[in-house]
Amino acid sequence: MREYLLTLCVTAAITYLLTGPVRKFAIAAGAMPEIRARDVHREPTPRLGGIAMFGGLCAGLLVASHLTNLKSVFENSDEPRALLSGAALIWILGVLDDKWGVDALVKLGGQMIAAGVMVLQGLTILWIPIPGVGTVSLTPMQGTLLTVALVVITINAVNFVDGLDGLASGMVCIAAAAFFMYAYRMWFGYGIEAAAPATLFSVVLMGMCLGFLPHNMHPARIFMGDSGSMLIGLVMAAGAVSVTGQVDPDLLNQKAGGLREATHAMVPVYIPLLLPLTVIAVPVADLILAIVRRTWKGQSPFAADRGHLHHRLLEIGHSHSRAVLIMYFWSALIAFGAVAYSANNASMWIVLGIVLLSAVGLVLLLLPRFTPRAPRWAERMVPPRYRRVVRTVMAPAGDGAVDGLAAEEPEPVPAGINGATAIGDRSRFVDRRRAGSHR
Asked: Which of 132, 194, 282, 336 has the most CB atoms around it within 10 Å of its CB?
């Protein structure tokens, strides 16, 4: 675990330190497109944040290759090399799109080529465990097509959700954390070495997102652009392909101690598409809705609009930060809920907890203008917007103030019966201070 933690810290530190210089380079290179109709930000913001994230990816893999326990991943498997090759191709394509713009079909072709390069180097789905049927081995053509489809879907799901400051990086970080817990349990819990590459990929992905997130939180100083969103989508898909399509179900059956135990351990991995779609369920749902919506209107599925989930949250009254936090909440609930259910799917408490948290999420969605207030003893530890601050307004002369000096405005008080204020409401008002004139 210490080596994984070191890899995580190095990846995050390199990404964080590179983002500042990359921002200056993006401004100098003119990678600051004009505000579009679907954009939420109000000022031109530089892109190309994916350059820093790719640097963090390379640094994380380089450090891991020299660590005692993790270097065996590079010696016994070609998957890290396959990931780096595909990531380099998708990153170059994203940089070109951020600077000059690339046609949607060209980007789709580039994504398929990057996935194909990873397949040629061994990162592919070999079999599918299907409940009631057993393990179904795939032909090379079937494995290639399924792997390419999974990679392309994941890349575009992450790319589509990248519409608010800190949204894509935060959601992918949450998904990567859940994925790490699952892969680490298979690697060290059951001793299955085939899960080691996926564990490493998820740690590096977390570091990339955590290092970039401080620069990308609202208001963002730089965007990751397609060079970043497609990159983290590809890394996420690579980990999913590695752990779901190459871990032998028969070996897991043997390690788990029986068919029933193995079945319980593999609940999220019955079908290779299930686990990645579970940990990034919100982006995938947004992708599907966007395709259906645009096709229904007679538009291209790749035509941009303002109908994404985060846009709808803003339209019903949620602030930018609240919309991002709500998306974080749903991503964490689905991702960690699936991991918890895979660990112990017989526990009713897990199901009840998921249902309860889902109800809380629905309440948050229905209260867009509700602002929680911290108790007075905790006001110093929370942001200003959560404090019970008495606003200061300019009062006209003769209205409780002298010569138009500032008077303090009390907090609004709910009306009582027949419009009268309730008993004791006078204590909520702040006495206006009569200031003496010193002219």
From this structure: 282
